[in-house]
Amino acid sequence: MSRFSQFGNDLYSGKRSFDVVGRRSLFYVISLVLLGLSLFGLLGKGLNFGIEFRGGTELRVSQVQDMEDYETRAQEVVQAPVDGGTTAVTRIGDDTVRVQTGEMTSPEAEALRAELGEEFEVPVSAVTSSLVGPSWGESVTNRALIALGVFLLLVTVVLTLYFHTWKMAAAALVALLHDVVFTVGVYALLGIEVSPASVIGFLTILGYSIYDTIVVFDKVKENTDHAMDTRRTTYAEAANTAVNQTFVRSINTSVVALLPVAVILLVGLSIIGPGTLVDLAWALFIGIAVGTYSSVFVATPLLVHLRQGELDIRKHDAGVRKRRQRAESRSGRGEATAEAMATTPTVDGPSDPEPAAVGAAAPPAEEGTRATTAGRQLHPYAQRGPRNQPRRKRRG
Q: What contacts 86, CB < 8 A, 6 or more positions away?
């Protein structure tokens, strides 16, 4: 744990750094591949909508003692009265079997209840049936789409006002849509049932994704504003530093959020069985994981890509590069001079006389000079002093 803390401190201080912004093309390719797989699942396999969206009849057989081969046994009973209907059989808990099939009349549902009770050796009272119409799921979907539109509009306005540029809002929305499309695509690829709880989960991950992106963008804004004032680093370098400084924080936040969701998902799949809790946990687990990726590797590189074309940013980056070139040239000249001085051969000549001992008489001064108390020899004009110097005749 101490190594991880040291790793985070190194990233924050700049001792270590990942070139996320500089390698943005790589992360763009990764995102495009993920989105391509998601679209393949959506367009190829399609979503597995629950009974709330397609409508039908749901029967639950409780108090089942023998759960061996429950799915095949239920399928054999249900397929006879429901001609051409789609049947889904799942286990809920330890003693309950859920059967979802096409729409049925009341007499057909009653007859199927009796047959299921006989097959699983439970009384008819232990078998319940309910008719679910598709209008309820459609109503939930329509309201979810309205909520999504309002959410995106408010997020765009707030981010534009807070960060003083619409490009940050655009980058955040692209990352947001990236998360939603990927999550829905995973549902299609894995065949996970889409229920109203899943739709609620999709809306929930929007809030988490935008929250993580705003945290990173806030640090980006702080670093880039400082870089524009000091003119020591380029815009891309300041943004990349911000990503590294928030990298460990994003991982810690995601791990803390994913752990309870993972526990709910495992318990739901192994013990409780399918239901609202599992449907919600699936959406949250996938969305939080991909939201962490997009806030670091998609949103910030895309923001830099959008802003590098601005005139102020280009002038700033050009000034920083020129300043570095001048510094490097001066440093190069200094090193060359030092190297030349170090490699210049010395000329042999008479050795310097040994310094006079303390209290010894000073050597006599040469003619035309006068020795000072400090041992310096003065020019003849300076020996006379200012008053003894000859005056220049004025030209009349």
A: 54, 56, 101, 102
The pTM assigned to this predicted structure is 0.69
3-state per-residue secondary structure call for 309-361: CCHHHHHHHHHHHHHHHHHHHHHHHHHHHHHHHHHCCCCCCCCCCCCCCCCCC
Query: Are 220 and 290 in a shared domain?
Result: yes
Rounded CA gap, 143 and 199, in Å?
10
Euclidean distance between CA atoms 322 and 234, whole angstroms: 11
**Would residue 334 count as lying in a domain?**
no
| H-only helix segments in 86-195 | 106-120, 134-163, 166-190
Domain boundary (319, 350, 378) is at 319
Cα atoms found within 13 Å of the Cα of residue 44, Cβ hemisphere only: 12
Choosing from 319, 351, 368, the residue where a domain stops is 319
d(CA 186, CA 208): 18
Number of domains in the chain: 2
Give, for all 396 residues of the chain, the pLDDT tens digit: 566 566 556 666 656 778 888 889 999 999 999 899 999 988 888 888 877 777 788 888 888 887 777 888 888 888 754 444 567 787 777 778 888 888 788 888 888 888 888 888 888 888 888 887 767 667 777 887 888 888 888 888 888 888 888 898 899 999 988 998 898 888 888 888 888 788 888 888 888 888 888 889 999 999 899 988 888 889 999 999 888 888 888 888 888 888 888 888 888 777 766 667 788 888 888 888 898 899 889 999 999 999 988 898 999 889 888 888 888 888 766 666 666 666 555 545 444 444 444 444 445 544 444 444 444 555 554 455 555 555 555 554
